[in-house]
Prior knowledge:
Layout: H1 3-8, E1 22-25, E2 37-38, H2 66-73, H3 79-84, E3 86-93, E4 100-107, E5 115-119, H4 128-139, E6 143-147, H5 163-171, H6 175-194, E7 202-207, H7 209-220, E8 229-233, E9 250-255, H8 263-272, E10 277-281, H9 295-317
Amino acid sequence: MAPAAIAACGAPSPPRRSIAPSLRCAAPGARPRHNHVLHRPSAATLPVQKPHAVGRQRPGRAHCSQTEAVAAASSTVDDDEACELVRGADLVIGEGDDSVRAYLFEAVKNNNGTGILLLSDIFGFEDSATRDFAYRVACNGYNVLVPDLFRGNPWRKSLPAEAEGFEQWLSGHAPARVSGDVDACTRWLVEEFTAAGDSKKLGVIGFCYGGGRLVETLARDAGKNAFSAGVCFYGSRMDASLGDRIAAPVLFVCGDGDALCPVETVRELERRARGAKAVVYAGRGHAFAHRPRSEEEDADAEDAFNAMRSWMHDHLLA
Length: 318
């Protein structure tokens, strides 16, 4: 990956201080007790101008609207209540060297019982842009699990930006180990939500690096059918040949100016994967949906979020 391509991923957002008590899942299928209520981040902790805007400035637009809550769960919960009552918990899934840290966002009053696995970009599961997006998804009634794909060593701005430095960092995250962690989190979601009878369906969302892993995850899921829908935001290093093995319908979102996610690859995946759909935004580059850098990108980011929300609702809840 060239320095320019690394820069296209966007600057990492600072990790958010953990505000939930640590919780370890020691026994498969055990129902954890999540006692901490995670309230919407305030202007004191994030640089926002409006009380509804989480993570980035968007004057006049609420992140969690009554429309979002109704679309997700036909909820009549008040706007502020739906968005403020999101429970957060630190998790450790698995035991010993095979354990993986994760963070769970749970909707409270409008919880639809459905689990979603969110696979981050290279900046990891503690990056605020990733957690803000997961928080928004949870506001729509979902239970969103964000695993630490990099075992405490995400890409940092302070690391060497040249391609060799990036590849050296990436080589420290063996694909087999990453896929094993993703599969462990998938099993946890199955045991926690589908096997427990809370929901019959699970979804998966991936950004950039996580988008590439989403394609691999759904290909491995063939025949198991743990996931019923996916949304891939500008996945990097995606193997289009895996599309033939993907059974869950996937929405692919990208920009036509993204060197890390060629439109040709997205179109091939759309053609190969059953029920897939591609949405390509003109003039947009990498990371525009969760790291917008302008008012124009912000508008497309909002549109992409709404497309994701509708896709998940139609395939997981309708």
